[in-house]
Amino acid sequence: MTPTPESLEQTAAAMRAQNKGKPIQLRSLTKNGVWVDITSPNYILDCFDSYEYRPKPEPKRVLWSKPEHVPGPVCWIRGTGRVACWFVVGVDKVGLAVSQETILMYPDLDSYEYSTDRITWKPCETTE
Q: For the chain, what is the largest distance between any 2 Cα atoms, rounded to a whole number of angstroms?
């Protein structure tokens, strides 16, 4: 199979990523076309075979929007840069209850951080 300029550029990008120690993927041009991770750091890419290559895409980070995104069973929330934090007492489709009167809505969580140990704080995000 003759490589196209696009497939050669994609293979070159995969080679650059592999040289930097980043993960790469391959897929068969003759079979189901599913991208598969290459786990061997010494894998030799061959642009004249029946595979195409690419750097492995980075996972997309998204703001929490579902109850299953919230880590548990214990979680604290605080506003970015604030000292005060609240214990999450409930989670539902709308947001996080941090007290009987206060619910933090999912769309507003971009200015909040969470912790499961009150030492390490991370943005209220997950990966897809």
A: 66
Full-model pTM: 0.59
- Condensed to tens digits (0 to 9), the pLDDT of residues 43-71 reads 777 666 678 888 998 888 899 999 999 99
Span 2-19, pLDDT tens digits: 777 887 888 889 889 888
Residue 1 · residue 50 · CB < 8 Å? yes
Residues 6 or more apart from 79 whose CB is under 8 A from it?
A: 111, 112, 113
Q: Which residues of 66-86 are buried (b: 16+ CB within 10 A; e: fewer)?
A: eeebbeeeebbbbeeeeeebb
Tokens of residue 22, six digits = 């980043």
